[in-house]
Design brief:
Length: about 170
């Protein structure tokens, strides 16, 4: 798993998505740290299917099977900056960006395939496990689980969501 995350930038695996206009990679740069590049995140658009129970909670949306989403396709922090809260800062910047996108484009959720060792990290940021069968079966449960953050829920009084992602630079 670490080789996949570490090699994503170095091997140029972000380039096809960029070239075809289906993803964007954001570099997390801190000019006060060495090295300057602290981490990155690649985002793409997707959709998420809710369970029937979840859909019933949104009675006014009868007949809608899937909801628009921004997916964190890949995210990584340089190993020299892990356990220094840089991952939390990067996720907050990406969450803020997704909320700003949701102001203009019909996306309701931020999706992530969380490493099984990092589930609590995502939960502490407000993510919950996706319960729809399609979402559960899509991931390799021994390695990652499908999680989502409701972008509209965070708009109910969270001032931090309106802060700009100053450290994120689009590549």
């Amino acid at each position: 798993m670490a080789e996949n995350v570490n090699g994503f930038l170095a091997d140029g695996r972000y380039k096809p998505g960029l070239a075809h206009g289906i993803s964007s990679t954001y570099l997390f740069i801190d000019p006060e740290k060495d090295p300057l590049l602290v981490g990155y995140a690649t985002l793409t658009f997707d959709s998420v299917r809710l369970t029937n129970t979840e859909k019933k909670e949104m009675e006014e949306l009868v007949g809608i099977a899937q909801f628009g989403a921004v997916r964190i396709q890949m995210i990584g922090i340089d190993h020299r900056h892990q356990r220094t809260h840089c991952g939390r800062e990067l996720l907050e910047a990406i969450t803020g960006l997704a909320r700003r996108i949701s102001d203009d484009v019909a996306v309701r959720f931020l999706l992530a395939d969380a490493n099984v060792r990092r589930i609590e990290f995502y939960e502490s940021a407000g993510f919950v496990l996706n319960q729809a069968k399609r979402e559960i079966e899509r991931t390799k449960r021994e390695r990652s689980v499908s999680m989502r953050l409701d972008l509209l829920e965070g708009l109910k009084g969270e001032d931090s969501a309106d802060q700009p992602a100053q450290a994120a630079v689009k590549q």
